[in-house]
Amino acid sequence: MKNIILATLTSLMVGSFFTPIAQSATVERELHLNYNHQEIGGYRGATLQDEIQDSYPWLDVSALELKSVVVVAKSRYGNSQVMLEINGFRAMPRNIPPAFGDDYLWPDPSSYHSVEVQNPLRIGGNGPWHLNLGPGPLKLFEITVNVIDHNPIPEPDPRAPLTYAHSAELRAGTNGRVTSVPVGLNRVKELAVVGTHQAVEIRGFRVYFADRRIEEISALHGLLLEGETHKVILPDLWGRGVRGVDVIALSPDTNTEPGKFMIQAGYYR
Questions:
Q1: What is the SS3 assignment for 110?
Q2: pLDDT (tens digit, 9 = 90+) per residue, 127-148?
Q3: Are 144 and 212 contained in the same domain?
Q4: What is the pLDDT of residues 78-123, one digit of tens each?
Q5: Domain span holding position 249
Q6: Nearest to 2 by CA among 248, 256, 263
């Protein structure tokens, strides 16, 4: 049975990520979600707040009021629809016009159609915004979500320096045990392992993201010597929320003291 070791991540952050803005301020936003010609064979259902948070992690999605949704798509046979539901209220379904023959295969944006659906509640609606597309086949290029932001947060500057946080010192094992490290940070741009004592061989580095995706970061596998730092830069422009990390670390030399290391995260405030 794997031994589980918990280490608390020591954050260098004090206070909240952003300076609050007066609640009376509101901003109208057009939030663009890119789907890169995604082909849908049957139906596609999604909660728009979740997809907005993935693309705009700094926004307070609970403060957004939906005005309308514009779906840029094309239907193979003209039988596909856009369906929006909020708190049990459904907007009138809108048809996605067909694109026949080569027009359906052509990737140029001009071959797509824009279909707009209004908030069925006209204003308000704090529940999930369920958007369903189908039946397919259809291709999805982009969704624009028009909202009123009642808690506008400044967009972070990707040129700003990262703030760094690190775990307590962790001990490598000899039997492939898993070290589970809670992270609990948003907008993480960089993850690293830092060798602090003797050599450590990283056999596994699994990251649990806030959007519930789980990824194995194989770029951090390999031999880590004392004083070395191996890091990866997450491709997301604004970083990603990270809930925790599972690491498998071995001491390659069983005749010496066990190797030790730390996990480091660089994030935007």
A1: helix
A2: 899 999 999 999 999 999 999 9
A3: no
A4: 999 999 999 889 999 999 999 988 899 888 888 999 999 999 987 6
A5: 4-16+156-267
A6: 248
